[in-house]
Amino acid sequence: MFFRRYLMLVLCSVLPASPLAAQPSQDSLLLRYHKALLGLNPPPERRFSQQIQVSGWQEAITTGEFSFRGDRTWEGNLTEEDRLYHLQSDHFHLISESDRLALYTEYVEKPEQVAPHASIDLDATPETYETLSAEQTELRGTKVVHLRLKPKVDGQLRELWIDPGTGLPRRAVLNLAGVWGIAVYTVDFQAAGTYWLPERSRMQIVMNFWVPVGFAQRSFAGKLDIGSAFTNYRFGNEAQITLPMIPASPTETVHPDTTSSKLGKSLSVNLSTQNSRSPLAEKIAQFNLNKPDLSDPRTHINVFTTLHMGHQDLLLYLFRFDSKQTLVPFEPANSQGDSFKLFGTN
Predict the structure, then answer these.
(1) How many distinct structural domains can be found in the chain?
(2) Among 23, 42, 85, 288, which residue carries the largest CB count within 10 Å?
(3) Pairing outcome for strands 312-322 and 181-192
(4) Does residue 328 form part of some domain?
(5) Residue predicted with more confidence, 197 or 21
(6) pLDDT over 70, % of the chain
(7) CB 27 within 8 Å of CB 126
(8) Does some domain include residue 335?
(9) What is the distance of C-alpha 248 from the center of its chain?
(10) Looking at residue 255, what DSSP letter applies?
(11) Predicted confidence (pLDDT) per residue in 195-223, tens digit
(12) For residue 207, is it within any domain?
């Protein structure tokens, strides 16, 4: 009996500890993540700059300044190819991109107010997702826990990089689908003051849909790669300052580093800063801001997304869809699922 006890003590001292004993369980990681999302406080007012680069069958570089107020109204100034236009919340009717009937009915009756809107849900619990793997790694020089997820019923999340200190997401990758097509969405987050907000995002879309134009319909099929960078967050009184007529256009890399998720190389936006230096320039800017052909509802459609993060819902501008641009033909997705290798990216 003494010999058997001695042997057990020797084995326990030699055998390595179980990985689960050294790390939190996968279920506890998701529960902590879910609790951290629920604990987020949405900023009642926020103002930020956004840089957008669109490539694929539509090409555009856009910079914007957005102000969201506590009463849920908002406004934004956008600069695109040296042209300006102004957005206001009461000028838009946000319609779910999955509600085809409402989208097309409103498009015919009130085309100037139609704004397709997609919801992106970042929440996850052990009841809604199965954790396929969990490993400690680094993301942009910061230690994180990388989770690969599989939805148990319906769910958009596929990967999460969780901050071990806060339990909040540093990066998320989601698969999206709707009447417009399919997409992969990658979003990076940053601490901004006491808040946790988007830093940069990338959406790679394979589009396949149609819209009514007059008594006919027009089909759209092609690939879009949309990168955004969110900078210069301001809150409280600073968020409610009247927007400038001509927003600044800083140089910014708009795509997140997607090496680990194999979404391709980063793209850069390099824009010049515009300044209004005379009364004539101010009048030209005002004319461009309200130029009729820039707001043609049958050719220019503004698209929005909402990030659901616990009790926090963040409305974000995605891009301006220009239905007059020529579409680029594309091949159907292959059987290996490599649907988003776009235009020479690795």
Answers:
(1) 1
(2) 85
(3) unpaired
(4) no
(5) 197
(6) 64
(7) yes
(8) no
(9) 22
(10) S
(11) 999 999 999 998 776 655 554 556 667 88
(12) yes
Q: 194 Cβ partners below 8 Å, 6+ apart?
A: 41
Tokens of 283: 């009048």
Q: What pLDDT shows up at residue 265?
A: 36
Residue 163 belongs to what domain range? 24-322
- The structure tokens listed for 224 are 């879009």
Q: Provide the phi-psi class of 285: left if phi over 0, else alpha when psi is between -120 and 50, else beta.
A: alpha
The stretch 247-255 carries a mean pLDDT of 43
Residue 93 lies in a domain: yes
Residue 310: other Cβ atoms inside 10 A: 17
- Containing H/E element for 158? strand 157-162
256-285 per-residue burial string, b: 16 or more CB within 10 A, e: under 16: bbbeebebbebeebebeebeeeeeeeeeeb
The answer for residues whose C-beta is within 8 angstroms of residue 240's C-beta and 6 or more apart is 45, 47, 67, 69
- The helix/strand/coil state of 7 is helix
Residue 22, token pair as written in the block: 């050294």
Q: What is the pLDDT of residue 300?
A: 76
Cα–Cα distance for residue pair 62/203, rounded to 1 Å: 15
Q: DSSP of 269-320, one letter per residue?
A: E--PPP---SHHHHHHHHHHHT-GGGS-TTTEEEEEEEEEETTEEEEEEEEE
Other CB atoms within 10 Å distance of the CB of residue 314: 20
